[in-house]
Prior knowledge:
The chain is mainly alpha-helical. The protein contains two helices and no strands. The longest helix has 15 residues. The radius of gyration is 30 Å and the shape is rod-shaped.
Amino acid sequence: MNADIDQNQPPLLRVVNPDATPEEVAALVAVFSALGSAGGEPPRKPRPSWNLPARGVRQTHRPGAGAWRASGLPH
């Protein structure tokens, strides 16, 4: 007998079809265990580029030919 099993707990899975084969039961257990292993936090959505904090930081403009024109262009 497995020491990890608590006898006071109801079973997590009960097969009610007497004609179920061991392969069918194993397939059901595999599906339910895969569904249960997805716990944890959902992945975070990527932040859109227009909302990045780095966009609020001004870049240094370099002096030189055409600098006044480049100062107004997006980077």
